[in-house]
Automatic annotation (TrEMBL):
PANTHER family: OXYGEN-EVOLVING ENHANCER PROTEIN 3-1, CHLOROPLASTIC, PHOTOSYNTHETIC NDH SUBUNIT OF LUMENAL LOCATION 2, CHLOROPLASTIC. SUPFAM superfamilies: Oxygen-evolving enhancer protein 3. It comes from Turnera subulata. Belongs to the PsbQ family. Its main location: plastid. The keyword Cytoplasm does not apply. This is Photosynthetic NDH subunit of lumenal location 2, chloroplastic. GO terms for molecular function: calcium ion binding. It holds the Pfam family PsbQ. InterPro entries: PsbQ-like_dom_sf, PSII_PsbQ, PSII_PsbQ_pln.
Protein backbone atom coordinates (compact mmCIF):
# COMPACT_ATOMS: atom_id res chain seq x y z
CA UNK A 1 0.00 0.00 0.00
CA UNK A 2 1.30 3.35 -0.95
CA UNK A 3 0.62 6.43 1.02
CA UNK A 4 1.10 9.93 -0.10
CA UNK A 5 3.55 11.95 1.78
CA UNK A 6 2.40 15.29 2.99
CA UNK A 7 4.76 18.12 3.29
CA UNK A 8 4.58 20.69 5.96
CA UNK A 9 5.44 23.75 3.91
CA UNK A 10 5.50 27.01 5.78
CA UNK A 11 2.55 29.29 5.08
CA UNK A 12 3.41 32.13 2.75
CA UNK A 13 2.24 35.51 3.94
CA UNK A 14 2.20 38.54 1.77
CA UNK A 15 2.98 41.74 3.57
CA UNK A 16 0.83 44.71 2.78
CA UNK A 17 1.43 48.25 3.85
CA UNK A 18 -0.86 49.25 6.70
CA UNK A 19 -4.28 50.55 5.58
CA UNK A 20 -4.95 54.11 6.58
CA UNK A 21 -8.39 55.28 7.56
CA UNK A 22 -8.25 58.14 5.03
CA UNK A 23 -7.87 55.69 2.13
CA UNK A 24 -11.12 53.92 3.01
CA UNK A 25 -13.52 56.87 3.14
CA UNK A 26 -14.38 58.64 -0.13
CA UNK A 27 -13.03 62.05 -0.86
CA UNK A 28 -15.32 65.02 -0.19
CA UNK A 29 -16.47 65.55 -3.84
CA UNK A 30 -17.38 61.86 -4.22
CA UNK A 31 -19.20 61.92 -0.91
CA UNK A 32 -21.27 64.92 -2.02
CA UNK A 33 -22.23 63.18 -5.27
CA UNK A 34 -23.24 60.03 -3.41
CA UNK A 35 -25.27 62.03 -0.90
CA UNK A 36 -26.97 64.01 -3.70
CA UNK A 37 -27.86 60.82 -5.61
CA UNK A 38 -29.29 59.25 -2.47
CA UNK A 39 -31.24 62.42 -1.71
CA UNK A 40 -32.69 62.53 -5.26
CA UNK A 41 -33.62 58.86 -5.08
CA UNK A 42 -35.28 59.38 -1.71
CA UNK A 43 -37.24 62.37 -3.01
CA UNK A 44 -38.46 60.39 -6.03
CA UNK A 45 -39.53 57.56 -3.74
CA UNK A 46 -41.49 60.02 -1.62
CA UNK A 47 -43.25 61.41 -4.70
CA UNK A 48 -44.21 57.91 -5.84
CA UNK A 49 -45.40 57.01 -2.36
CA UNK A 50 -47.44 60.19 -2.06
CA UNK A 51 -49.00 59.67 -5.50
CA UNK A 52 -49.84 56.06 -4.74
CA UNK A 53 -51.46 56.85 -1.43
CA UNK A 54 -53.41 59.79 -2.85
CA UNK A 55 -54.85 57.65 -5.65
CA UNK A 56 -55.60 54.66 -3.47
CA UNK A 57 -54.27 51.14 -3.71
CA UNK A 58 -52.83 50.03 -7.02
CA UNK A 59 -50.70 51.40 -9.80
CA UNK A 60 -50.52 55.18 -9.87
CA UNK A 61 -52.37 56.28 -13.00
CA UNK A 62 -50.63 59.65 -13.05
CA UNK A 63 -47.23 58.01 -13.42
CA UNK A 64 -48.24 55.82 -16.38
CA UNK A 65 -47.10 57.13 -19.71
CA UNK A 66 -49.79 58.95 -21.58
CA UNK A 67 -49.54 56.86 -24.73
CA UNK A 68 -48.94 53.37 -23.34
CA UNK A 69 -46.40 51.37 -21.41
CA UNK A 70 -45.30 47.77 -21.51
CA UNK A 71 -46.86 45.52 -18.90
CA UNK A 72 -44.56 42.71 -17.83
CA UNK A 73 -47.36 41.01 -15.93
CA UNK A 74 -49.71 40.49 -18.87
CA UNK A 75 -47.00 40.60 -21.56
CA UNK A 76 -49.07 42.99 -23.64
CA UNK A 77 -49.10 46.71 -24.06
CA UNK A 78 -51.06 48.51 -21.40
CA UNK A 79 -52.93 51.31 -23.09
CA UNK A 80 -54.67 53.74 -20.79
CA UNK A 81 -57.84 55.35 -22.05
CA UNK A 82 -56.98 58.55 -23.87
CA UNK A 83 -59.09 61.54 -24.54
CA UNK A 84 -60.47 61.74 -28.09
CA UNK A 85 -58.07 64.62 -28.87
CA UNK A 86 -55.06 62.56 -27.71
CA UNK A 87 -56.23 59.62 -29.81
CA UNK A 88 -56.52 61.85 -32.86
CA UNK A 89 -53.02 63.19 -32.17
CA UNK A 90 -51.65 59.64 -31.91
CA UNK A 91 -53.32 58.76 -35.24
CA UNK A 92 -51.54 61.75 -36.83
CA UNK A 93 -48.26 60.60 -35.31
CA UNK A 94 -48.86 57.09 -36.65
CA UNK A 95 -49.42 58.55 -40.12
CA UNK A 96 -46.07 60.35 -39.94
CA UNK A 97 -44.42 57.15 -38.72
CA UNK A 98 -45.88 55.09 -41.54
CA UNK A 99 -44.52 57.60 -44.04
CA UNK A 100 -41.08 57.29 -42.45
CA UNK A 101 -40.78 53.50 -42.80
CA UNK A 102 -40.38 53.72 -46.58
CA UNK A 103 -36.59 53.40 -46.22
CA UNK A 104 -36.96 50.21 -44.19
CA UNK A 105 -39.34 48.82 -46.78
CA UNK A 106 -37.01 49.69 -49.66
CA UNK A 107 -34.04 48.07 -47.91
CA UNK A 108 -36.30 45.05 -47.24
CA UNK A 109 -35.83 45.11 -43.48
CA UNK A 110 -38.91 42.95 -43.08
CA UNK A 111 -38.55 42.21 -39.35
CA UNK A 112 -38.46 45.88 -38.41
CA UNK A 113 -41.40 46.67 -40.68
CA UNK A 114 -43.43 43.79 -39.19
CA UNK A 115 -42.68 44.91 -35.64
CA UNK A 116 -43.59 48.50 -36.42
CA UNK A 117 -46.84 47.53 -38.13
CA UNK A 118 -47.97 45.27 -35.30
CA UNK A 119 -47.30 47.86 -32.62
CA UNK A 120 -49.15 50.52 -34.60
CA UNK A 121 -52.07 48.16 -35.28
CA UNK A 122 -52.47 47.57 -31.56
CA UNK A 123 -52.66 51.31 -30.90
CA UNK A 124 -54.86 52.08 -33.90
CA UNK A 125 -57.58 49.65 -32.88
CA UNK A 126 -58.29 51.64 -29.77
CA UNK A 127 -57.51 55.08 -31.17
CA UNK A 128 -59.90 54.72 -34.11
CA UNK A 129 -62.76 53.97 -31.74
CA UNK A 130 -61.96 56.81 -29.37
CA UNK A 131 -61.23 59.45 -32.03
CA UNK A 132 -64.62 58.74 -33.60
CA UNK A 133 -66.23 60.90 -30.92
CA UNK A 134 -64.39 64.05 -32.02
CA UNK A 135 -66.23 64.17 -35.34
CA UNK A 136 -69.57 65.79 -36.06
CA UNK A 137 -72.33 63.47 -37.24
CA UNK A 138 -72.02 64.61 -40.85
CA UNK A 139 -68.50 63.13 -41.16
CA UNK A 140 -68.94 59.98 -39.07
CA UNK A 141 -70.07 57.75 -41.97
CA UNK A 142 -67.03 58.73 -44.05
CA UNK A 143 -64.79 58.17 -41.04
CA UNK A 144 -66.17 54.65 -40.52
CA UNK A 145 -65.63 53.79 -44.21
CA UNK A 146 -62.04 55.10 -44.21
CA UNK A 147 -61.22 53.50 -40.84
CA UNK A 148 -62.42 50.12 -42.15
CA UNK A 149 -60.31 50.54 -45.30
CA UNK A 150 -57.30 51.45 -43.19
CA UNK A 151 -57.75 48.41 -40.96
CA UNK A 152 -58.07 46.10 -43.97
CA UNK A 153 -55.07 47.65 -45.75
CA UNK A 154 -52.81 47.41 -42.71
CA UNK A 155 -53.83 43.77 -42.19
CA UNK A 156 -53.04 42.94 -45.83
CA UNK A 157 -49.78 44.92 -45.62
CA UNK A 158 -48.79 42.91 -42.55
CA UNK A 159 -49.72 39.67 -44.29
CA UNK A 160 -47.62 40.42 -47.37
CA UNK A 161 -44.65 41.66 -45.36
CA UNK A 162 -44.63 38.36 -43.45
CA UNK A 163 -44.47 36.25 -46.64
CA UNK A 164 -42.44 38.54 -47.91
CA UNK A 165 -43.98 39.47 -51.22
CA UNK A 166 -42.28 42.58 -52.42
CA UNK A 167 -44.75 43.89 -55.00
CA UNK A 168 -47.82 43.26 -52.83
CA UNK A 169 -46.07 44.79 -49.81
CA UNK A 170 -45.43 48.01 -51.73
CA UNK A 171 -48.97 48.00 -53.11
CA UNK A 172 -50.63 47.68 -49.69
CA UNK A 173 -48.13 50.09 -48.15
CA UNK A 174 -49.28 52.75 -50.61
CA UNK A 175 -52.95 51.88 -49.98
CA UNK A 176 -52.32 52.14 -46.23
CA UNK A 177 -50.73 55.56 -46.67
CA UNK A 178 -53.67 56.76 -48.77
CA UNK A 179 -56.17 55.53 -46.18
CA UNK A 180 -54.40 57.01 -43.19
CA UNK A 181 -53.87 60.34 -44.96
CA UNK A 182 -57.57 60.48 -45.79
CA UNK A 183 -58.37 59.63 -42.16
CA UNK A 184 -56.10 62.39 -40.87
CA UNK A 185 -57.79 64.83 -43.26
CA UNK A 186 -61.18 63.82 -41.83
CA UNK A 187 -59.93 64.38 -38.29
CA UNK A 188 -58.90 67.85 -39.32
Amino acid sequence: MMTMATTNAPAVTILHPPIKASSISPSPPQQNVMTTNRRNLFQKALVILATTTSLGVGTPVALAQNWGTHSFIKEYYFMPDLSPEDSAARIRQTAEGLHSIRDMLESMAWRYVMFYIRVKQAYLRKDLKIAFFTLPESRQDDYIRVANELTDNIAMFDRHVRTPRVYESYLYYEKTLESIDELVALLG
